[in-house]
Design brief:
8 strands; two-stranded antiparallel sheet; six-stranded mixed sheet; 133 residues; alpha+beta
């Protein structure tokens, strides 16, 4: 069972490869890209909008700030599994970041050689206190 690993969450899809050119009198035929990254429905902007709309500050009154990095696997059907923290800030923030990722809708799955593939994906989730001016 193949598992592709992408450590950045917002990479662009690759352009189709060209097999021949018109200068030789041959028709141009695009090939299927080797790898296509999984995609949140609507793209990265919608994903971060979803996170911002659903993220809640943990109940404790801590003045902690930081970035939690969460990894997960986008399965062949677009569901998310194996959600875990790979860079921690605080247990309460880690728990909230995992909760939000687990609540995401299904993604468009990654593809490898034209077939759906399991892909490991990582995203940063920042917790920052609002600045009063």
């Amino acid at each position: 069972m193949a598992l592709l690993v992408f450590l950045t969450g917002c990479a662009a899809e690759k352009e189709p490869l060209i097999t021949s050119s018109l200068s030789h009198g041959v028709i141009i035929e695009p090939k299927i890209p080797e790898e296509v990254y999984p995609k949140y429905p609507g793209g990265p902007e919608k994903m971060f909008e979803f996170i911002a709309d659903n993220l809640r500050w943990p109940d404790d009154d801590a003045c902690i700030q930081g970035r939690v990095v969460v990894s997960f696997i986008v399965e062949k059907d677009g569901s998310l599994t194996d959600v875990k923290v790979i860079k921690s800030v605080d247990p309460a923030f880690d728990k909230e970041a995992v909760r939000v990722v687990k609540s995401m809708p299904k993604w468009e799955p990654g593809m490898y050689r034209g077939k759906p593939a399991r892909v490991k994906y990582c995203i940063p989730i920042s917790f920052r206190l609002a600045q009063n001016n």
